[in-house]
């Protein structure tokens, strides 16, 4: 019912590297995206009205009714999507590679679409830096799936038809909502590769005065006797009555 939250299974699919495509290339990418996503739903026997979809430009948000068995999604649908992608990508110079965010929770419907924190989490899991890095590291693999911690504990961990919890790896990810645990799998691989890390360049040191031995040249202006510190050393400055220094 519109305006009331209803429990559902959220699936958010994003195309990796879509930002690098030209305007003339994107329509074909979107056609392939819908082709493989909807073919997998049909093969898994998930259809309207139990399947709602929203276009997200370079992705698709799908919300499944509460009576769709969750293991059918993380098992059959995910495996069909993987195999359909492999078939589609044969012979393509630029293969379609997808990131899938998966979560379960309350979803609110209105005239504009679907919303809720559960929807936000599914979208952010699939779009997180760790998902992008893992898919980049999994050369030759067309798909990475990210399950929320709750979905993994409630559904994946128990196993089932084509559901293999040992093929998932847990990572902590930074999202807008804060640090969250998530579970990553790359269909076709025993375990997903670890995300590549980029070394942080050392911070440049401030330039120091140059000199020979214990001496150095530095211009200073002083207006009285006292101590001054330069280049980590302390010295005493005396001003005589004639204004000279020694």
Question: Which helices and strands, and how do they pair?
Answer:
Blueprint: E1 5-15, H1 26-43, E2 51-55, E3 59-64, H2 70-89, E4 98-110, E5 113-115, H3 117-127, H4 129-137, E6 143-148, H5 149-154, E7 169-175, E8 178-185, E9 211-212, E10 215-216, E11 226-230, E12 233-237
Parallel strand pairs: 4-6
Antiparallel strand pairs: 1-3, 1-4, 2-3, 4-5, 6-8, 7-8, 9-10, 11-12
Helix pairs in contact: 1-2
Tell me what you see in this structure:
Strands 1, 2, 3, 4, 5, 6, 7 and 8 form an eight-stranded mixed sheet that branches. α1 (26-43) crosses α2 (70-89). The termini are far apart. This protein has 246 residues and is an alpha+beta fold. Mean pLDDT is 85; it is low at 198-223, 228-234 and 236-246. The protein has helices at residues 26-43, 70-89, 117-127, 129-137, 149-154, and strands spanning 5-15, 51-55, 59-64, 98-110, 113-115, 143-148, 169-175, 178-185, 211-212, 215-216, 226-230, 233-237.
Low-pLDDT parts are 198-223, 228-234, 236-246
What's the average pLDDT? 85
Helix content: 25-40%
Class per helix and strand makeup: alpha+beta
How would you sum up this structure in a few lines?
This protein is an alpha+beta fold.
